[in-house]
Every structure is written in C-alpha cells, then in structure tokens.
Amino acid sequence: MTHESSENIIINRETSNELENNWRQYLSFSTDHKVIGVQYMVTTFIFFLIGGLLAMLIRAELITPPSNVVDRPLYNGLFTLHGTIMIFLWIIPFNAGISNYLVPLMLGARDMAFPLLNAISFWIIPPSGILLISSFLLPNGTAQSGWWSYPPISLQIPPGQPINGEFIWIISIVLIGISSIMGAVNFVTTIFWMRAPGMTFFRMPVFVWSVLSAQLLQLVNLPSLTGALILLLFDLSFGTQFFKPLENGDPIIYQHLFWFYSHPAVYIMALPAFGIFAEVLPAFSRNPLFGYRSLAIASLGIAVVSIFVWVHHMFTSATPGWMRMLFMVTSMLVAVPTGVKAFGWTATIWKSKLHLETPMLFAMGGAAMFLLGGVTGVMLAAVPFDIHVHNTYFIVGHFHYIVFNTITMAIFAAIYFWFPKITGRMYAEGWGKIHFWLTFIGANLTFFPMLPLGLQGMVRRISSYDPRYQGWNIVASLGGFLLGVSILPFIANMVGSCLYGQRASNNPWLATGLEWQTTSPPPRDNFEEIPVVKRPPYDYGDPKYSVIEPADYHQQENHSR
Q1: Torsion angle, CA of 69/74/78/81, rounded to 10 degrees?
Q2: Residue 351 pLDDT
Q3: How many Å apart are CA 204 and CA 240, to the nearest integer?
Q4: Which residues make Cβ contacts (< 8 Å) with residue 80, sequence separation at least 6?
Q5: Does an H or E element contain 283, and which?
Q6: Between 20 and 30 A from 289 (CA), which of 37, 64, 65, 172?
Q7: Are 463 and 524 within 8 A, CB to CB?
Q8: Burial bucket for residue 56 (CB in 10 Å: 0-12, 13-18, 19+)
Q9: Residue 18 confidence (pLDDT)
Q10: What is the model's pLDDT at position 8?
C-alpha cells in the first residue's frame, strides 16, 4: 500500500467520524445555538411536509362540487390541523430556527444569552407537534373548529369524552406558546446585551432588527392567546362559563383575546421574511441596501402599529361603528411602514446588474408576490369591502399570498442563501432553479383563483359548493398538486448537496455580514476572536466588494484549487 493511499484512508476515516459526530449532535440535547437552529429547521420542515399533505387532501376534495373524497368531520379536521401546523409548527418555529442560527453570528456573539433556555425552547416543539397530529387517532377525531377555535363551536363536544381533539389542540398550542415566549426572552436579551464591540443598533443587519421587532411582539401579544386558550380549556373540561353564550358567557371576548395575538402573528411571521429580503437583495445586486435606517425603523413601526389592528377580523362580530372606523384607519396605516420596506427593496435592485442565483430568485419572487398580498390586505382593511367578502375564499387567497407566496418563499431564499454557511457545501444551482419555477408557478396557480372565487361569493371552510365555482377550483387544485411536487427537487438538492456538494468557501456570495467572516460551517464559539465592528452594514460600495462579482468569485476559487 502506498503512502498516498494510506493518507487517503486516514482522511476518509476522519471525514466519516466527523459526519457521524455531526449527526449525533443534531439528535442530542445541545446548547449550541447553531445546532439548535438546525434542529428547529429540520423538525419544522417535517411538519411542513405533513401540513402540505393535508392541504393536498383538501384540494383533492375541492376538485369536484360534491363532497366525495373524505367525510365532512374529517374535512373539518384536515383544514383545522393544516392551518395550525403551518402557522404554529412551520413558519413561526422555522423563523425561530433560522434566527437562532444567524443572530449571534450577525452580532459577533459566542452564543445566545441563555443557552439552556434556548435548548428547552426547542425540545418543547417536537412532542407538542406529535401530540397534535396524534389526535387524528382519537375515536372522535381531531379538533374541527379551525385554527382559530371559536367558541361555541369549539365547545360542542359530546359528553363522556374528556380526552378529545379540541382538548389535545389546546394543550399543544399552549405548550408551543410557552416555547415561543421563552425564545422571545432569549432573542431580545441577546440582541440588547450580546452585541460585539462597535455593533451599535444602527450597524445591526435589518434581519436582526426584524427578529427583534417580531420577538417583542411575541412578548407583548402572545400572553393574551395563552390566557384565552386556558379559559377555553376550563369551559371545555371543567364546566366554567367564560365563553358559553347560553350561560351568560361572551364568545366575542374570546375573539378579542385571540386576534390581539393572532393578527400581529402575521407580522411575527412576516418580519423575519422582510429581513431575509434585506439580506439577499443587496448581496445579489451588489448594491448597498437603500434606506437602511428607514427599513430598520420600519420594522419597529410595523410591530407597533400591528398591535392596534386586531378588530378588523371582527367587523361582522357586532362591532360598533366607531370601533370599525378606528380599526379601519389603523389597519390601513400598516401599509406605510410596509410600503417603506417594499420601496427600499425596489430601489436596492433598481438599475443593478442582478445575479439571478436561486436565493435571489426566491427573494425577488417573494417580494413581488407580497405586493399583491399587501394590496388585497389594504382592500380588506376597508369596512364595506371586508363585509362583502367576509368568510369567502378572497380571505384565503389574500392570507396565502402572505404566508406562502411571501413568507415561505423568503424561507426558501434563506435556506439557499445560508446553506453554504450552515453545511460548508454548495447546493446544486440547476435543481434550485427548477425548485423556484415549480414553486412560483404552482403558488400562483393555487392561490390566485381564490381571489375571484371569493369575489363571486364562494364560502370558505366547506367541502361541497355550487358547480359554477368548479372551474377556478380545478385550477387551484392542479396548482396545489404542482406545489406538492415542487418540494421533491428541493429535498433531493438539500440531501444530495449535504452529502456530496462542492466544498463552500467561507464567503461564497462576497456578502458583508459578520456571519460570512467566519468559517463554513462556523466553529463552536463562532469566531476565533470576538470581532470589533467598524463599518456599516451592506457596505457593497467598498471596492474590495465591488471589483469581483459572485460568478467570477466561484471561478476564481475553482482555479485556485
């Protein structure tokens, strides 16, 4: 055996041992924020797949007007758990995962402020999700009152069934809420107290500003939902009368408590997506982020205004006229800081030489579709229009243009953008672009038809409908199936690239954030020495960042090898 071959055997053994150790740490109780971040992201992606399968069953039912695929109680359970999983087990905790990974790196910190609390926050999520999904196995099935769980519908449980789907649903969401509150304490403390020397607030990336704003909302608003669900549990299981209308309870109070959190929850989901756009668009247009300070302050502006808009979900709930007018104005006011962000993104890429790698495609696609979601949101803020389309598929279309066509597209942009940093390997660009186009086309085919369906009067949450709505429903269902297929090249790309992808350099995109100034993947303590920050973020005007373009950089790296 030659000396060279024996060296290769040693190297291969070291690599296999390293991979084995890496796998083991992701399956263990770790206090490393990077490990916890990956655990969050992988776990929530599994829940995303489950929620997507439920959505495909819903769309299969809606291809034809009669209810002929699943029975009505099961259909109610499908859309209840689909919405619950996608919000509470996919978007919100995935954002916590990517934020966990990136925020300490972006701030130049060693770890999160409370590493043990951070680990506990994650390990609440898997059992809560498994508990929720296991409710399908109950004799009376899972919860069937929607992800909002309005009483008195959510209290209509046959007697003699103390363990029922609604009970399991409440317990799961309360546990997930506790996890989110613990995480919010950690994020806010880390951002305020763990910044590297020189990392002033106006040197923080906009992504960190977005995370700070979202987590402050969690601290302020989430306790109202937790309290409402505990009171609902008492009504359900212990004979109290907080929300029972026939026993002097008030179900409208539940709606106020629920929406006081659950409308800002849209911005808790959207703000990190806006932060992702602010990181990706400058990197691939090679321009500084236009209006950095305005976009940073707009994140806080969105958070503040969003606290005062919850009643626009209740314009038809016996809401007095003065309250309708007040909350119509505040709901429209959210368009101002979000408009500032959209203008900043557009100005950043204006007249630039764009590098249309996969992260940029997802970021541009998500930002573009946010405009339609935002415009329909302003329409729904107007009382007369909201009453006209209340409880129709127009609401479903608008909501999904935000939560999927904007936020989930941003999540995919983030995965592709930071994949080299997290794994130390490059993904396959061709497969990434196939994933983007299948997703972009499938998403618009699925959710755009819901807007005309709603304007024509098709009611949501039903499994059978008037035959005159079938045409648009066929388009939406075929789009939904395409959306399901689109995830296959993504999974193949991620798994294959993790195992066999080309080794990534420390900064393959020539980006300016601190996370790109350490190794790929980063070491346990993130940096050999705590960095001292002396320059503003998004400083792409610096000659050393503008001389070499990303595509040329890859060629230079390959040549040097």
Answers
A1: -170
A2: 86
A3: 48
A4: 142, 143, 144, 145, 146, 147, 169
A5: helix 264-285
A6: 37
A7: no
A8: middle
A9: 46
A10: 41
